[in-house]
Amino acid sequence: MSFDINLLMLVLLLILAAVNLTVGVANDAINFLNSALGSKAAKFKTALTIAALGVFVGIFFSNGMMEVARTGVFNPERFNLNEVLIILLAMMYAQVLLIDLFNTFGLPTSTTVALVFTLLGASIAVSVVKVIQTGSAFTTVYQYLNLSSILTIIIGIVSSVFFAFIFGYIIQFITRLIFTFDYIEKFKKYGAIWSGIALSLIVLFIFLKGAKGSTFIPKEILSFIDANLTLIFISSIAVWTIIIYFILWFTKINMLKVIVMVGTFGLALSFSANDLVNFIGAPLAGLNAYTYSLSEPEIAKNTMAFLKEPVKADMLILIISGIIMVVTLYLSKKAQNVAKTELNLGRQDEGFERFESNILARMIVRFAIGFANFILKIVPQPIINKVATRFDISKYKPLIIEGEQPPSFDLIRAAVILVVSSGLISFATSLQLPLSTTYVTFIVAMAAALPDKAWGRDSAVNRVSGVITVVAGWFFTAILASIFASLIAIVIFYTSFFGVIGIGVLVVIAFIRTGKLHKEKEKEEDERLKRIVAEKENPDTRVEFILNAIKEYMTKHLLILTDSYENFFILETSNLKANFKLAKKLDDEGMAFIKNIIKLYSENSPKVPDDGYLYTKALLAFQELGDRLVLVTKQNHKYIDNNHHKFTNEQIKEIGDLLKVYIDFVNQILNRIDKRNFENDDDIELLHNSIISNIKSQINIHLNRILLKTNINFKRSTIYMSTLVDVEMFAKDILFIYQATKDSFMYYIANKE
Known about the structure:
The protein has helices spanning about 5-40, 45-60, 65-70, 80-105, 110-135, 145-180, 185-210, 220-225, 230-250, 255-295, 295-300, 315-330, 335-345, 360-380, 380-390, 410-430, 435-450, 460-495, 495-535, 540-570, 575-605, 610-640, 650-675, 680-710, 715-750. By secondary structure, the protein is mostly helical.
């Protein structure tokens, strides 16, 4: 009995279906959990349970989308069984690798785009191979592809992003204009009709329009819904408005939380109905193709045209898929990692910005500011003043639960995000357009943040940079997906069994490595969260947190600085670049620390400190320390990268001796902070004075070298003297920080006693 390579590929396809469900849900699940988590409308487990129920119900609405994986990208009549299985297996290998990689780094990507472009890449690769084998012209490759369907899908994805932004912004603007940030009393007046419309939209688009993909709702009922859609919608608004009016006035039920929870259920249902095809569509197509080949072996050797015929997915397979997705929701930690990106970019308050600014983001922000100023000039001032009062963010007072972080945004915005996202996704699903749920929910969330002024001038550039990074990742997904899948398809086509198994082994290795990497990132994040929680604890914990943070910051500063100069002396360019990156990261950490200190002071200090000048100088010294370290490490890297002259042995020795004294100086301070011993500063003062006198002496010596023209290179001389001055400024900043730390600690001890 000969070995059946097609059966092996089918078995791997079915295994990959289960894997793809887990990595896909880890990536997409957070799309429908973000609003509930960001607004803290419910406990995490409660939101998760409601979402899980929505996911499970949604699988029964997904059948109409399954045709995308069968005929949406390639023309099956042009391929035989083996070729179709190669296309589908290459697509699944590439997709699970790609999505898992994005999940590991916490970047939301699109499983729909991954599906379409991995399928496209694999189809093109196999088509080209067939054209070469048959000796046909390359221009005939297009005959193997369903170009009209591909174009429709791409247009649907791109247009969905556009409409998501427009609707997200406009609806949030109107909603905030009605309710403002101080919305509790106003919601009692106007909330009934708004909630009625919101719930009606969810019911209409999800339970009615989305039902078109279902196999268990009779056609007569679907026809009646289509014929009476307007009447059903108006009636639904009237009924819901009346019910909610009585709820608002006669109960203490928070209707916004109810809408967010219903929206979470609805969006989870929409996700499942729309995206299940991304996870199991290809394996089911492979299963159908192989089953058909058993009954029609001769036809299957030549063509898979039967795949064009509509096939209903087996209900048992759908239920098993639903169970896997629900279990993944509860167990996947990578899903929570992806959430942090969207919540971070859309949060209402300031804090640590995950993304650095770039030139495109700066241009966009400048244009937006200019456009806003233009609008302000042409709109009458009374209207501007009236609108400004409706968007007064000073009235934003988030409900903070003791022991927890404040919500990223309020319930009003959460409700808008869910209503707009679920409506757009369900409407597209009813038209059998596989738009990206990730793109829609992400763009709606970002658009809704704009009217709320969540992106102020201090954070706008960083957050726009974040959005650009995510969107660029989407395009990168498409390109990478096509390349991955095409290469894998070619390898499998020419190596058969060895390629199938070899790539499978590579996938397993990749999963193990990304799993380890994610655990490391998770450990770092846990430590960071513990520190944040410490800020909210009792004064003892808060003081310990501040002292430990200062010590850690100084330690990192010292390591990066000394390592940069060591690499500078030996001309190690790659390490100098790494030092520069570490310095930038430390500078960001310093800025976040400063913001936390100011926030703690504003929340806990009843009066201005006795020596406000010293504390202010210390905070500025922190910022200066970070900024100067970035400049020094950049300067060192640039100097060596440009192949300038190496320092002379004399200069290396002089800088090295100075750094030894500086290291001793910083270590003395670190030792005092570590032991909480601030009794005698004589040795610290002595070391600081030694640094200053050493620098003055070295500058005079070097100026004499210049006058005597002894082995002088002016570029090198400039960097040398700059290094001396930088160390002096570092020492002054460190001393300011130490003095403020000492005074704060002594003040705390005195008042504690």
